[in-house]
Design goal:
Keywords: Ligase, Membrane, Transmembrane, Transmembrane helix. It is found in: Membrane. It is a multi-pass membrane protein. This protein is mainly α. It contains 17 helices and no strands. Helix 4 (102-124) packs antiparallel against helix 15 (378-408), helix 6 runs parallel beside helix 17 (443-479) and helix 9 (209-227) packs antiparallel against helix 16. The chain is globular and about 75 Å long. The chain starts with 8 loop residues before the first helix and ends with a helix.
Length: 480
Amino acid sequence: MITPSVTSPTEVMINMIAAFLLIPIVFGFVFRAPKYVVFGFLSVLFIFSDSTWGQLNAASGNIYSRGVGLFYFSLLNIVLIIAGIAVLIRRLANPQGPQLAPQMTKYFLAFVFMMIGHVLIGLMVGIELDVILSLNGMFNVINMFAFMYLAILAFENDRDTTTLLFMIIILAVGRGLFGAVRYFLFDGDTSNPYRNFEGLDIKIFFFDIGDNFVAALAAFCAAWLLTTPGIKLNVFTRIFLVGVIVLEVAAVALSFRRSSLIGMGLMFAFLFLRLPGKRKIFFAGAAALALSLVASTFFEQRLQFNTTQGGGILSSLIYDISPTRGGGIKNSRFYELYAAAQSMEGHWLFGRGTWGTFTGDRERLAFHEGNWGFVHSGFGHLVLKGGIVGLLIFTGMLAAYISFYARFRKHLYGKAALLADAGFAGFLFWIPTLLIGTPIIEFRTMLLFGLTMAMPFIAVGLQNYQVRTYIMRTQQYAAA
């Protein structure tokens, strides 16, 4: 979640100049070389953490909040908005160009229409515009769409897609090595609510769910390359990819986040289902060994603190949602959603507005620190802000995405197949977070989610490019 940063007069002037200079620069890059804009975003998203929750001495801002306070949005968000407008103009100027996920367009337009309605109603009832457009509302869904469309536009040939896959793995390895050094040689991630707030004697690899996703995505890509039939790799590449898997799986396991561990499990279960019969046996054996190591480490380091007398791994995994806990829903993780639902009377259809809040037991919800404008569920947050209508638009988009992948995956091969599978696996990773996390209010998280949404569409574009190139070369050969 982005928090405003305190800026000096000099910083204000610098930010103003930068903002005005960004418009022609970003437009120029989007029209001439959009891939460099996406590469820049990916470098930031993969390298820099956004979460400060869990720090004892949290900084006033980071790269994702630079410019907040002077503008409605951060400078990085402004760049994304400008890029999104440039993508729209480029598409309108060249309607015969590559399609930008038309399956998603109606959901994007529906969400924009809903946001415009919230802006108009909010202004009519006296809500400030910066509150209406706050990332505590639903604006990050717009950011997600903008980045998704930008990524689809940027990659449409074989070389650029190879660079994208290379960046995903290399940046993730760099981030993973940084986390490993910090974990094994120092005190781990300073954003550690388990130790700093709950008093648990553990250190963690990464707390930010975005870092966990980056690690899981790289591990999936490496495992896909190692296990998929028809992929020829030399021994050094295989050793490197095995090292990538070990590093990135350790990063997720030692982060001790249930949602990311379950998400990574879903990714590798999906890979297992895609493998032919003989390879499933080898993969199942390796996965069982890895799972046993991860589960034992997870239980020993974190879940032991949540286990009652005689409990095991399963009981400790669901310690805060177990039906055996006394006190009913008020003593469970779902109390927050229950309290939010109690505040929805008369607002179920269209929500309480992007500025809407809920009320509940302040002692039980002390972790909110007085901010009642979000809940720990992406779907629940959409209902709070946009009602059943907002939830239906978002879930309709997800259904269209799943349908697109299922329809076109059987026609893909090579790098296009890897891109599509990695994107869909990434979508599976985010399911637990959408259910029990706070993705909608997190700028970095929603852009990474936008990347996973874009990847199958990029893959189909790459396949079309390869087919066009093959036909053109065949015609040139025949003419010669």
